[in-house]
């Protein structure tokens, strides 16, 4: 039986679209070491991230991450954020105000994960 043709790769992203790619074996090693919950938390941050001064920066509260995922409590989301910080995948930036969510710099180089955002000028 013949296989259907593979879909054509999309070269242009629509405004607001984000592509998160996993390169193996690096991404598999990251998943094996940190687990699926940490990976899901990292995805939430990656989708929210913007490039600021050449760094990938995401603003997200623990509660907001838990609510977006829907399957982690805020305590579990906090533990995964702390785990990613200890692993060097996230750096917390100084708070900009008492009511502002924390900001994190994402360091994805050793994770096998990359993020591509749509060009906002389109």
Give a structural overview.
With 122 residues, the protein is α+β, with helices and mostly antiparallel strands. 36% of the residues lie in helices and 20% in strands. The strands form 2 sheets. A 4-stranded antiparallel sheet has the order 2-3-5-4. Strand 2 and strand 3 form a beta hairpin. Helix 1 crosses helix 2 and helix 2 crosses helix 3. The chain is globular, with a radius of gyration of 16 Å. The termini are far apart.
SSE layout and pairing:
Layout: E1 18-22, H1 26-48, E2 50-52, E3 55-59, H2 62-69, H3 74-86, E4 90-92, E5 103-106, E6 113-117
Antiparallel strand pairs: 1-6, 2-3, 3-5, 4-5
Helix pairs in contact: 1-2, 1-3, 2-3
The number of helices is: 3
Low-confidence stretches: none
Distance between the termini: 42 Å
Number of strands: 6
Radius of gyration: 16 Å
Overall average pLDDT = 90
> What helical percentage do the residues reach?
25-40%
Q: How are the strands of the largest sheet arranged?
A: 2-3-5-4
What percent strand? Answer: 15-25%
In one word, what is the shape? Answer: globular
The major pleated sheet works out as:
4 strands, antiparallel
Supply the helix-strand structural class. alpha+beta
* Helix-strand pattern: EHEEHHEEE
Oligomer class: single chain
């Amino acid at each position: 039986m013949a296989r259907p043709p593979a879909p054509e790769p999309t070269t242009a992203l629509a405004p607001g679209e984000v592509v998160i790619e996993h390169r193996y074996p690096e991404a598999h090693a990251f998943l094996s070491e940190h687990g699926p919950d940490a990976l899901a938390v990292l995805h939430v941050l990656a989708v929210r991230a913007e490039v600021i001064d050449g760094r990938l920066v995401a603003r997200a509260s623990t509660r907001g991450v838990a609510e977006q995922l829907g399957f982690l409590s805020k305590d579990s989301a906090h533990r995964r954020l702390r785990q990613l910080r200890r692993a060097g995948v996230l750096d917390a930036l100084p708070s900009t105000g008492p009511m502002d969510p924390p900001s994190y710099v994402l360091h994805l180089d050793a994770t096998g994960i990359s993020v591509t955002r749509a060009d906002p000028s389109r």
